[in-house]
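Let's practice the habit of predicting before peeking. Look at the sequence and jot down your guess about where helices and strands might fall. Then scroll down.
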Amino acid sequence: MKKLRFTFLKLGVTAAIATGLSVASASAQPVKGTFTLAYEVLWGKAVLPPGQYVVSFDEAGRRALVSNVLTGEHRAVVMAQALDDAMKSQPTALIITKVENQRFVHSFNWREGDQRFIYRPVSKTRGTDLGSVSEAVTVPILMTQR
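Done guessing? Here is the structure:
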């Protein structure tokens, strides 16, 4: 009788774990989106020339793979340095800042997912080291679930 109870317990624990994993994988689907850059932008250490791009975010959203739409060439793999709540007043978009003559991806605001992925935090120290940061520009991203 004890052996039978132990077997049922193992079976119940295994089923609970399997159910939890399948629910977690179903709810944490990777997402992707497309966007167009009208000018050169630095995203992490990658230089993105003007053009059309597709970006794929992993399940956790921290890692993004950026590819050129026309050539399929992988242009960047970038990791978010910080996470925050989405800015509800902003659309789903890349937030690009300009420091002197160079543009940088500051963050990705994903309104539907209620998250903001910060790639280049702007601090008072960084602002004075690199010059003045001009107003942020949004580049809309058309998101789709895979």
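How did you do? Residues 90 and 109 are 7 Å apart (CA to CA).
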